[in-house]
Amino acid sequence: MINLSLYSCLKYGTMKVGKSNIFHRQNQATSKGCGMENTMRIGCVKEIKNNEFRVGLTPDNVKAYVNAGHTVYVEQDAGLGSGFTTEEYREAGAVIFEKAADVWKQCDMMVKVKEPLAEEYPLFHEGMILYTYLHLAADKPQMEALMAAKVKGVAYETLVETDGSLPLLAPMSQIAGRLSIQEGAKYLEKIYGGRGVLLAGVPGTPKGKVVILGGGSVGTNACKVAVGMGADVTVIDMNLKRLAYLDDIFGARIQTLYSTDAAIEKAMAEADLVVGCVLIPGKAAPKLIKRSYLKNMKPGSVIVDVAVDQGGCCETTKVTYHDDPIYTVDGVIHYCVGNMPGAVPRTATIALTNATLRYGLEIANKGLEKACQDNPVIYSAVNTYDGKCTCKNVTDSFGMEAHDIHNMF
Hints:
- The strands form two sheets. The protein has an eight-stranded mixed beta sheet, with helices on both faces.
- The protein is an alpha/beta fold.
- 36% of the residues lie in helices and 15% in strands.
- It is globular.
- The protein has two domains: 4-166 and 346-407, NAD(P)-binding Rossmann-like Domain (Rossmann fold, 3-Layer(aba) Sandwich), CATH 3.40.50; 170-343, 3-Layer(aba) Sandwich (Rossmann fold), CATH 3.40.50.
- The protein starts with a helix and ends in an 11-residue tail after the last helix.
- The chain has 14 helices and 15 strands.
- Strand 14 and strand 15 form a beta hairpin.
């Protein structure tokens, strides 16, 4: 006999919070009876970081998980910042909870965008999979909280594919790179304290000088926009093959330089806008921009530190937010927003979830352990497991012992 109340909840996602435990037991029993062995309860909550409007799952993602036999719990209004209504999630098959705490409590795997904040740490529970950007190298308290609760922390930013690419970091790197020039150009305006320089210039005036530190995904996308605006662009990197690649793409429209302290200091002294795009996956960013370099920069010039999530590549970097994004040190404006793509949440959410869904489904369908064994790429994303930190670049940042995830299950 079919439980009509349960059927209604499964179909329309209308289960109230107070009945959630009954729903879980009935759903698990029904799933097992239907022969589903790898079912999981997936959670998605509203991001609470200052001015963060992205969301971990779109309604289409919810439908994909539900069609795979999983139950998806979504906090009410979780997707509004990205333009997705609660009704869209409900129609996709999600169960809507009014409170984030109930989603955290009931889920087996939480899918987010940004790292959890301190007020969310008490909501961790042992064995839960946390699938999100973690950036642990710049956040020791979060790492300790994940280990203490024995959370399985799966970090988007450290997943490395067989070709060496970073598929879950790439979409946000593309957006952050493009935004970096847009934001930098804005804060060069005099009303924000900038030099009053137009990057493109006009006939008879010099173009603005843009220096990009790092020629990876962020740097390449920053370069595209800067070149497109008509700026005078210099890209600095220590990888000669990458510089050759960028030279082939952009030709005479950019200057490439090999990275040395002297080259960086000299280029910054001439720059109107400096964009820091340095990344070592999972590891704290190296401090390439020294405090002493700032005194030689032009007053009102701008530094945009895209590496701020990993601690920043400038010695004077501190995290800022979209509602108060800049501060000035030694006459140089610093833009160090830790969630830059959050400014364009609709684009960013769709781009991010296009990349994360595939791996998320693998983990949900098989469990984290079996998913890693079947697709070893996923091992690289596991940062914490069974109370241990399993990402060597993170442990190196704190001088801790690394535990090899391959030997833990």
